[in-house]
Amino acid sequence: MHGLFLALFAATILATAPVVLRRAESAGFSPRLVQQGWRAAAGGALASLALAVPVFTTDLWTSPARAVGVTPDIGIVAVPLPVQIAVALSVLLGLAAGWRRGGPVVRDYRRALRVQLDRLESSSPVLDEVERGHPRLVIVEDAQPRLVLLPSRPPRVEVTTRALDLLRPEELNAVLTHMSGHLRRRDAWWMTASETMAEAFPRVPFFSRWADHSAALAEKGADADVRGPIARSNLRRALAKLSGPGQANGPFCPCFAWPQQRQQELTAVRQVRERRAPVAAVALRGLTMAALVVPTLVVASPHFASM
Fold first, then answer.
1. What is the residue-wise DSSP string for 43-65?
2. What's the farthest any 2 CA atoms get from each other in the chain?
3. Between 20 and 30 A from 205 (CA), which of 84, 154, 172, 240?
4. Pairing relation of β-strands 156-160 and 136-140?
5. What is the residue range of 263's domain?
6. Which of 74, 237, 251, 225 shows the shortest CA–CA distance to 171?
7. Nearest to residue 158, comparing CAs of 242, 90, 231?
8. How many other C-beta atoms lie within 10 A of the C-beta of residue 252?
9. Does a structural domain hold residue 289?
10. pTM of the prediction?
11. Is 176 among the domain residues?
């Protein structure tokens, strides 16, 4: 009963969340709120599926404990053993196939980060370090105007001497504020996770749509951290100066992608949706809470261990 409910709940989230979130995004609601909705929906669906499997295969995963004389405090569900074995094998084969398809995304991310860091260390950069654990500003001699965020430990922001020549101090400050937003929300990690899931499970439309929206939402959310018309104007001018060849792609700060569209968004006057914004906030937060709370409530149910 619980396993079927969790599986159906996960399927419902995966089917309905993209529609709700796409409409919220097109309506112009907070990109950070929409971004949280995508992440919560993915986490809730995966958690529900992960919890449903032990319910269907109770005999298998409790057998080692029973073999050593320990009786687990959970009831045995009325699922035939052949069905439990079939479910367990299907899940293991699905995970193995998914990792085979999606694993290269993670490995490429780690390899690219290592290459970028090695390149910085070998280029004799000038380091302006602050307190331990805080971002480092790495200044590199280069004729290309490049400004890249590397989510290492501690994070590094690579800026070339050409970029420093082009940017005024207030423009550089606006870009660094934008990048700090990426760091706080761990956007690089989430972008990699969405692309990994999209590659691992290509037949699940939710993950491909999440990957398609992840980068754009991350940029809009970081743009929103730059507050005030003057600061946003500085960010818009910095984007115009730095957009073009030489910038890093993928999770290493796609901050200068879609320059024309983002400049229009930065200069557009925001329309205040006094009536609809609270409703959308409640709806999206309801989706977020349902995706994360429902699996927890099912597990915490006093009947979970007896069915």
1. HHHHHHHHHHHHHHTHHHHHHHH
2. 72
3. 84
4. parallel
5. 125-270
6. 237
7. 242
8. 19
9. no
10. 0.82
11. yes
The encoded tokens of residue 176 equal: 């660094």
Show Cβ contacts of residue 29 under 8 Å, excluding neighbours closer than 6 positions: 273, 277, 280, 281, 284
Tokens at 228, concatenated: 């005030």
Per-residue pLDDT reduced to its tens digit, 161-213:
899 999 999 999 999 999 989 988 999 999 999 999 999 999 999 999 999 99
Among 245, 37, 272, 224, smallest CA distance to 145 is for: 245
Is cis: bond before 154, omega within 30 of 0? Answer: yes
Kindly state whether residue 52 falls inside one of the protein's structural domains: no
List b or e across 201-222, with b for residues whose CB sees 16 or more CB atoms inside 10 angstroms: beebebbbbbbebbbbbbbbbb
Local confidence band at 27 (pLDDT 50, 70, 90 cut-offs): confident
Backbone angles phi, psi at 156, to 5 degrees: -125, 140
Report if residue 30 sits inside a domain.
no
**Burial of residue 300, with CB atoms counted within 10 A of its CB: 0-12 exposed, 13-18 middle, 19 or more buried:** exposed
Q: What residues contact 77, with CB distance under 8 A and at least 6 apart? A: 3, 55, 56, 58, 307
d(CA 201, CA 257): 26
